[in-house]
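User: Could you go from structure to sequence for me? I need the amino acid at each position, not a summary. Structure tokens:
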């Protein structure tokens, strides 16, 4: 190899001045600092070397089915012992058989240990928020459209000084009419939805069963209350109309619950399982 070519293997830094370095690294322009920096740079990308003699030897021994079953049972027992908060099916069924409808209603309107609302109240709040938001958007758009048509009809013979003035007055009228219509309808739909959701959820929680009946009752009672200012006849007609609407809507909602496995029984089962786990964790922490 010519003397002007430098070998690219890096020697230890403490041997840069040895005579052997000049034999294997015949690079006259290379300095100890060059090898030191290059050695540090390459050391960042070095991977550990593992020799075949260092690998553990795996011995494949035949395992009988009895030994495998025993090992699986021991592993499961260890997991159960480690996880003290594991709730069995028997404990859940015992709790469900011992509770009453009043207990379920009380738990529905009571916050948990972390200060959060019950899943039923959370569902009611989220549903009201979505219903009111959609109602405001739809009714404000319709009200603004009708307001613009009303403004154009009432001011056909009005002479405005400029086109900008006419456009500005029309836009103001559209915005005000839309906001007014949106707030009025959101208020009405919000009251109806609140009474309907609270009644239907309370009946389902008390019975611990999902059906069409709670929606029919809730809609009938809500319709009667909203028509109370019209007297007994108005309340009766409102109750009948509300019950028919509840029958149609309740059938759709109940069918959707069955398809998604989100009935009251299933949701209450999951909530009780979580409730018992939290109670066991609290008792374990207190001990």
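Assistant: Here is the amino acid at each position, in order:
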């Amino acid at each position: 190899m010519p003397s002007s070519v430098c070998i690219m293997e890096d020697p230890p830094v403490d041997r840069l001045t040895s005579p052997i370095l000049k034999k294997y690294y015949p690079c006259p322009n290379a300095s100890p600092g060059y090898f030191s920096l290059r050695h540090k740079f390459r050391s960042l990308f070095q991977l550990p070397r593992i020799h075949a003699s260092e690998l553990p030897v795996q011995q494949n021994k035949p395992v009988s089915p009895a030994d495998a079953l025993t090992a699986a049972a021991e592993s499961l027992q260890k997991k159960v012992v480690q996880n003290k908060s594991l709730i069995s099916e028997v404990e859940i069924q015992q709790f469900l058989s011992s509770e009453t409808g009043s207990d379920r209603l009380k738990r529905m309107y009571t916050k948990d240990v972390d200060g959060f609302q019950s899943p039923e109240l959370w569902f009611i709040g989220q549903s009201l928020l979505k219903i009111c938001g959609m109602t405001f958007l739809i009714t404000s758009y319709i009200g603004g459209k009708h307001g613009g048509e009303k403004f154009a009809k009432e001011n056909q013979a009005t002479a405005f000084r400029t086109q900008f003035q006419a456009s500005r007055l029309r836009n103001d009228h559209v915005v005000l009419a839309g906001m007014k219509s949106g707030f009025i309808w959101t208020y009405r739909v919000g009251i109806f939805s609140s009474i309907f959701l609270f009644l239907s959820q309370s009946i389902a929680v008390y019975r611990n069963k999902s059906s069409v009946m709670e929606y029919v009752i809730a809609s009938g009672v809500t319709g009667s209350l909203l028509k109370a200012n019209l007297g007994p006849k108005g309340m009766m007609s409102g109750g009948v109309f509300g019950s028919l609407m509840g029958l149609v809507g309740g059938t759709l909602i109940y069918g959707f619950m069955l398809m998604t496995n989100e009935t009251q029984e299933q949701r209450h089962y999951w909530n009780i399982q979580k409730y018992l786990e939290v109670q066991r964790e609290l008792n374990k922490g207190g001990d």
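One structural detail worth keeping in mind: Residues 67 and 73 are 10 Å apart (CA to CA).
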